[in-house]
Structures are given as structure tokens and as C-alpha cells.
Amino acid sequence: MEVLRKPAWLKSKKLGARKTREIIKILRKYNLHTVCESAKCPNQGECFENGTATFMILGETCTRNCSFCAIDKTKKNLEPVDKNEPKAIAKLSNELGLKYVVITTVTRDDLSDGGASQFIEVIKQIREICDPEVAIELLISDFGGDLDQVKRIINAGPDVLNHNIETVQRLYGVVRPMADFERSLKVLQTAKKTDGSILTKSGFMVGLGETKIEVLELLKKLRDVDVDIITIGQYMAPTQDHYTVAEYVHPDTFAHYKIEGVRMGFRLIESAPLVRSSYHAEQAKKILNK
Q1: What are the pLDDT digits (tens) for 241-268?
Q2: Does a structural domain hold residue 20?
Q3: Among 143, 190, 239, 257, which residue has the fewest nearby CB atoms (within 10 Å)?
Q4: What are the tens digits of pLDDT across the range 83-112?
């Protein structure tokens, strides 16, 4: 397949070189990781410049084989659960004066609870150490379909529960072969049913070969399970060995998806080529404070 040339609108802002060095130095001090680095996010400099980061718990190695993702999937020996990690995240969040903390994870199918207990402990430590006004967003895996783990996490009291659908249902077999479209919808549905007041969030990529009709159908299915917040961004292959970009979607199309999403009733939509699941995540506070 022909490798497409990136258009001008996919150039990320060259911001935050100094701040990035500072944040990374502090992260290493606490032995912490961010998905910003591991997933090669194009907005890393901008977010670090604003003093925000998305912490990634449970190591840097994933047990899934998604063809789009830059996170390492090659290590045979997965990292043991770091019991000090939750308190370190809380201490660093407090040190940085964060008002909105985002926690994500690699998928850990090797753990009996999929890592749910680590998420719960992170929430506990942040609530104990940080300012009471701090909002917590979790970006969770599907826990292999174990919805009891989703309920445990919701009962621990996060403010926003995110689970990314990633792509349209038709492409799951090649893009997310170890995941399941309906299972991911059930994760989002379970979160809202467990606590109707929690904000639920999901995100997906375009440019993988989906059609506009499929995108609108996907948005409708997410609204059907009462998702509040959506992020839509352009897929960019991390390396030549990853899933090949089928199309660089024009910004006007992203604007169209946002308009349609607003009509469907989503409370907040970020839709643009460089949007990623945690981009401008703190905007959710505007809804939380209403």
C-alpha cells in the first residue's frame, strides 16, 4: 500500500521543550511513566508546557496486540505491580499543583483483576494527598469483559470514566484483534449504570479505512449507551510496521463530525486531526462544575 504524505494540518505545535525536560526529570525522580511519552503523542510538548500529563500505571508493556499502538508489546516478562506507584502519582500531582489528573494503563490481561485494584488505590491516594478540588479522570481497559471490575472502579469515586472504542466495528478484526466492540460498549454502559452522575467518555481514530457513515453510526452507538464526552483524532502510524494510514482526514470533516455529535447530544466533543484521548481533558471540569 502507498505511504501517504502527511498534510500541513498535521504539524503539531512545537511547544514546551523546556517544560518537557522539567516534567520528564520529575517523572524519573518518582519512577513514573506517561502515556504521552510511551504512545508518542504529538501534543506532548503542548500539554507539558501547560503542566499536565497523563500518568500510565502498571508498567510500559501491554498484553494486547493492537496494530495501531506504539506502546511496547514485545517483552515476555511483564513488570510486577508497583505498590508505591499510587502514592508517587498523588505526591507528584500535589507537587505540580495539578487540578485535573488523568490516569491510564497498559492492558494487563495477566493480572486477575486486570489492574483494577491499582486504579482504585491511585484514587484513594490522590483523595488523601491532593487538594480536594482535584478532579480525576481514568482511562481504563476492558478488563477482559469482567464488568465487576468496572463497578469496583466506579464505586471508588472517579469524576470521569474513559474507555476508548478506538475504531468502527468493522475494523476491529485487524485494528484491535484481541478486543471486542460490543464488550467495550458494555464497559461504558456499565459505568453509567453503576453511577448515573459520573461522566463517561470515549475516543476513536479516523483515517483507518472507515467511511463517514460508519463514523456517524459509531457516534450514535456511543450515545445509545449515554456517553457524555467524545474525542476524535487522526490515526498516524508510529512506524512502518504498524497499521498503514488509509487516509488523512481533512479538518472540515472533523468539524462535520463535531456538529453531528452535538446534534446527537454529546456534552463535550474534541474533534480535530491532532486530538488524542486526553487532549484538553481538563475541559471536562466545565461540566463537572455545572
Answers
A1: 888 999 999 999 999 999 999 999 999 9
A2: yes
A3: 239
A4: 999 999 999 889 888 888 999 998 899 999
**H helix intervals, the chain:** 17-29, 35-38, 44-49, 85-96, 116-129, 147-155, 172-175, 181-194, 212-224, 251-264, 284-288
How far is Cα 82 from Cα 160, in angstroms, rounded to an integer? 24
Q: Which residues pair with 183 in a beta bridge?
A: none
Amino acid identity for residue 268 in this structure: L
Q: Which CATH number covers residue 185? A: 3.20.20.70
Give the integer Cα–Cα distance in Å for 44 and 240: 21
Residue 169 lies in a domain: yes
Residue 15 Cα distances to 38, 49, 63, angstroms: 18, 7, 33
pLDDT at 11: 73
What is the total count of domains within the chain? 1
Q: Is residue 1 part of a domain?
A: no
Please check whether residue 280 lies inside any domain of the structure: yes
